Amino acid sequence: MSEICYYEILQVSKSCSGGELKKAYRKLAMKFHPDRNPDDKEAEEQFKTVNEAYQILSDESKRSIYDRYGRAGLEGQGSRSSGFGGGNMDDVMDMFNSMFGGGGGGGFGRQSRRDPSQKYALDFEIELPLKFHEAVFGCEKKVDIRYKSSCNDCKGTGAKDAKLDTCNYCKGQGQVLMRQGAMQFAQTCPQCQGQGQSIKEACGGCKGKGYHEEEDSVTVNIPAGVDSGNRLRAQGYGNEGKNGQRGDLYLTFIVEEDAHFIRNGNDIYIEVPVFFTQAILGETLSIPALEGELKLELKQSTKDKEQFIFEGEGVADVHGGRKGRLVAQVQMTLPKKINEEQKALLEKLQESYGVESHPHNSTFDSAFDRVKSWFKG
Question: What range does the domain containing 216 cover?
Fold first, then answer.
């Protein structure tokens, strides 16, 4: 019922051009190509997924079918289509008519054309907030929605008794010719928005809108690893058209931030407060991780902002499943105040290091000499 869509796999928008599609594909294909990732099964699977998405979206007819019916429209007898290879268009039409209840080969053609009198798009998109852990580990969500349904009283026209007049601005053409210098071009009629017809009297049932709003709910399984901006499609939960068929609902995720973990792609960062004596002496610390805890071994003289990498402790990739890294970064802390006993101990410690405890002296000796030379006659 829900799936990560091909556009999301290629990281492009649904309205992207062929050039943008090709550019995105080349980038991802190069990243996951088997020659660049030898013996990496996950990269190989991602490469196959990227290729599959591009093969569909780069073909205008397949892309049109996918936009309307999703992956189900590209499957036959319950198995993944190989791209309609070896079949003819009549076979494809028959397949879709059987799946979606069309009436013969011409029936599919009529369904696929957009009805110019349809006052709203069948697909629509909403934002879905997710907790940090819900995005990382995946979850099941019940989402309440409101969708548009064509008004029966006016047959979706917005006009009383479905009576429309021919638009007097474009004379029913839906387009008007505009001239700019020597150039002439057509644009959508601003009076009727391209319908070629206008409302003489508004429908009382829908107040001229052409639709009513209905309530519904959909339960979606959100895969582990999604992030803000990722989209999930719930097929058949969009707006309802005049023929009773519903479009698709697109859910765009907005993931809240966590108090301790910072996410960057599939990597997780965490700041580890370390007292200066711990950093100097070295110590083994227990730090939180996504799935429990990890042991962080501080070596002697650990530096502030130093990073410790834990491979495979990050977020699972939403497409391939491979986990990123957990990066633990040291945040050095100093005492806010010291008593007399502590001060004496620190002074004794400093003296024990001798010249090493005053590194600024050796660093700035030559600088002082140069500054003095600037003012000599």
Answer: 116-158+206-256
